[in-house]
Design brief:
3 domains; Butyryl-CoA Dehydrogenase, subunit A, domain 2; 45% helix; Butyryl-Coa Dehydrogenase, subunit A, domain 1; alpha+beta; Butyryl-CoA Dehydrogenase, subunit A, domain 3; 11 helices; four-stranded mixed sheet; disordered N terminus
Length: 391
């Protein structure tokens, strides 16, 4: 684990192959990502396509590509534990909250595509794995209440001959305008068995995108569907199977999600430690002050705990435990909340400099505030955990 050596790690450590993979990602970040990002403006979002393609080519040469895609579909088939290890390291850059490694580690279509038909997979997912397309978005959330998608989805999909006609909207969708296509969940009936999943191409008539301004550097989008006609061969699975297709992947996402905030907070803590060692105050160093020491200690303890909770959830899902929903919610809840607290302390330690754009701290702070809401808010995770405790 980051910050631990063999003498202090105790009896548990990552498998050797994941330690080696983590080292490869760290070297990639140092050699390519950090120098490239240093040339960009503080609040830059994403790379120009030409630079992104070049960076992704370097990642593919090192095998850092399609890591989440199962081997039978042409990917690396990395375990969930391996995915969180990579995600933590890849987040350690200024854009890391929304563009880990600046988007270098691509090649992963939306997970639901692994349950698509062979024809759908070949047309839409294969070009992403092969690098011909950069990404696709997933649209589940709506304004009515995104934390419970089974109830909240109101986007209508009505059968009309050999097509479905979609009317309604989606909210808080990342990467939508820059993606070639997306996976959209819409209501075709009542209840959980009334949700279906569709592939929607970017330029489909009636589909429009509207940027939503938020406090983070990276803005999501609202998608409007005005009589958007989708051929029935773009339905994934059977009608009404959408929620069942998505449910497993939602759990996966909650386990991987805190890796980014944890990686960012780890970077912030390292900067705070260096600042405390260097900063002269009242005839000594900032690091000599017990109040500062305790802030650093509390941060280190919380990050180790958050990382281990995430590792445990990933380990359990890799072992195919029957139900890891509670583990996933605990990892997501504690990881995002702890990372936010650590970052807040690190800004406090830096004083006014922590609020300036000379450092990435203030951008990270805005981004991590968003992360406490993504993949289900902290309150939703507490509700899931409570249900498990009180069953």
């Amino acid at each position: 684990m980051p910050g631990l050596d063999a003498a202090t790690a105790g009896a548990w450590e990552l498998p050797e192959e994941l330690i080696m993979l983590r080292g490869t990602v760290r070297r990639f970040m140092a050699a390519y990502v950090h120098p490239l990002e240093a040339k960009l403006e503080h609040d830059t979002v994403g790379l120009p396509r030409e630079e992104l393609v070049e960076l992704q080519a370097k990642a593919r040469e090192l095998g850092l590509w399609a890591l989440q895609t199962p081997e039978e579909f042409g990917g690396a088939g990395l375990s969930v534990l391996g995915q969180v290890v990579v995600a933590e390291e890849a987040s350690k850059c200024r854009m890391g909250a929304f563009f880990p490694a600046l988007g270098a580690f691509g090649g992963n279509p939306p997970n639901v595509m692994f349950k698509a038909s062979p024809e759908q997979f070949a047309k839409y997912a294969r070009p992403i794995i092969d690098g011909a397309m950069t990404k696709a978005y997933t649209a589940i959330t709506e304004a009515a209440g995104g934390s419970d998608p089974a109830r909240a989805i109101q986007l209508k999909a009505v059968r009309d001959g050999d097509a479905y006609v979609l009317n309604g909207s989606k909210m808080w969708i990342s990467h939508a305008p820059s993606a070639d296509w997306g996976v959209v969940y819409a209501r075709t009936g009542e209840g959980r068995n009334g949700i279906s999943c569709f592939i929607v191409e970017k330029d489909t008539p009636g589909l429009t995108f509207h940027r939503i301004g938020v406090m983070a550097s990276f803005a999501p989008y609202e998608l409007h569907f005005d009589n958007v006609r989708i051929p029935d061969d773009q339905l994934i699975g059977e009608e009404g199977q959408g929620f069942a297709l998505a449910s497993d992947f939602l759990v996966h996402g909650r386990i991987i999600y805190p890796a980014g905030p944890i990686g960012i907070a780890q970077s912030a803590l390292e900067e705070a430690c260096q600042w405390a060692r260097d900063r002269d105050v009242f005839g000594g160093k900032l690091a000599d002050k017990q109040g500062i020491q305790w802030m650093l200690v509390d941060s280190e303890v919380e990050l180790r705990a958050a990382r281990l909770l995430m590792y445990q959830a990933a380990w359990n899902i890799d072992l195919r435990y029957a139900d890891v929903r509670t583990d996933a919610s605990i990892a997501k809840l504690y990881g995002t909340e702890a990372a936010y607290r650590v970052l807040d302390r690190c800004i406090q330690i830096h004083g006014a400099l922590g609020l300036s754009k000379e450092l990435p701290l203030e951008r990270w702070f805005r981004d991590l505030r968003v992360k406490r809401l993504g993949e289900g808010s902290s309150e939703v995770q507490r509700e899931i955990i409570a249900r498990s405790l009180l069953r």
